[in-house]
Specification:
The chain has 163 residues and is an alpha+beta fold. It has two domains: 94 residues, no CATH class; 67 residues, no CATH class. It has four helices and ten strands, in the order αββαββββααββββ. The strands form two sheets. An eight-stranded antiparallel sheet has the order 3-4-5-6-7-8-9-10, with helices on both faces. The chain has a two-stranded antiparallel ribbon with strand order 1-2. A hairpin with a 6-residue loop joins β8 and β9. The protein is globular and about 40 Å long. The protein starts with a helix and ends with a strand. The relative contact order is 0.11.
Amino acid sequence: MKAKFLAAFAAVAAIAFAGFSASAQYNSTPGIVMAGSQNADKLPSKAKKFIKKHFDGVGVAGCEEAFAQGKYAVELLNGVEIEFDSKGEVLEVDAPDNTYLAASVAKDLLHDSAFNHLEKAGLIGKVESIEFKKGRAVEVEVDVPGPDTYVFDINGLFITVQD
């Protein structure tokens, strides 16, 4: 997700420097609008509530809707990237490089069993991303040497650790 988002962001930045400019607003903080972008106010209410709950006061740098896929890609000014479905459910959330997601984000998104498993392993403070895989599994990437992706089923049952 980061590579695609950054490529689109770079393309838009090139256009902006060519004399075109625009802005998106959410919480009255200006940001950059991307090709095919949407005003963050158009996000589903559940997505807006999630952002307000966990990132209150952090502006939106970009908000893009993939119409055919029914998804929204949001980048916050602090570098966090979030992908939502058309109902506002989180599909993926990524912390910027060399940072971690707040424990409250992991607690909110993960099943209690998955959260407890990571907490007991001392990994809650090292969560880099959480991705939901087609309603069947949840992949949690943590900052550890070696295999760093913990996979759980949707009921929080630990499945495996993979690279």
